Amino acid sequence: MISRFFRRRVLGPILDLLRQGITPEKIALSIAFGIVLGVFPALGWTTLLCLIAAAWLRLNLPAMQLVNLLVYPLQLILLVPFLRAGELLFRSHPMGLSLPQIVGLIHAGMWQAIKVLWVATVHGIVVWAILAPPAIFLTYKVLAPLLRRARHMMKLKAPASATEVC
């Protein structure tokens, strides 16, 4: 069931992008940014961040948004660790909030949640910003050769612009 979902909803669209002539490097960079922006430690911002990054870097927005949606559970899982790491980095007073408590705060009232979580969120974003560049780089370095190999296995010709590395 999961492998069929993965093949149909993830692998299929990525291979379709290769068939359309989009370079493996561009797809790899789009996916890398989609993953890293998708775990941004402030709920509700990832779609906008992906849109801005795609427009600014001329990346594939559909690929980024697909990955962004797929990593949403990972964003929730990593939210508290990013906040905790921010507390450690800035030596701030631990809030001791769990994910269910954070979600409860948001449901109780967005403005109150922003007031309570503002500093912790900013600290978490700083930690994310420190980790984001190497995470994008490593993800790209893993995915680009895999996508080049997939293109080769599909016997697709490299587009004329394939010599350009994003």
Tell me the layout of helices and strands:
Elements: H1 2-19, H2 24-38, H3 46-57, H4 61-70, H5 72-90, H6 99-108, H7 110-153
Helix pairs in contact: 2-3, 2-4, 2-7, 3-4, 5-7, 6-7
Quick structural summary:
This protein has 166 residues and is mainly alpha-helical. It has helices at residues 2-19, 24-38, 46-57, 61-70, 72-90, 99-108, 110-153. The chain has one domain.
Would you write up a description of this structure?
The radius of gyration is 18 Å and the shape is elongated. It is mostly helical and about 170 residues long. The chain has helices spanning about 1-20, 25-40, 45-55, 60-70, 70-90, 100-110, 110-155. The chain has one domain (about 1-160). Mean pLDDT is about 90; it is low at about 160-165.
Strand content: under 5%
Overall pLDDT: 90
Low-confidence runs (pLDDT<50, min 5 residues)? Answer: 162-166
Q: What's the structural domain tally?
A: 1
Q: Roughly how many Å apart are the termini?
A: 35 Å
Radius of gyration: 18 Å
Number of strands: 0
Which percent range fits the helix content?
over 70%
Order of helix and strand elements from N to C terminus: HHHHHHH
Number of helices: 7
Largest sheet: none
From the spread of the alpha carbons, the general shape counts as elongated
Structural class: mainly alpha
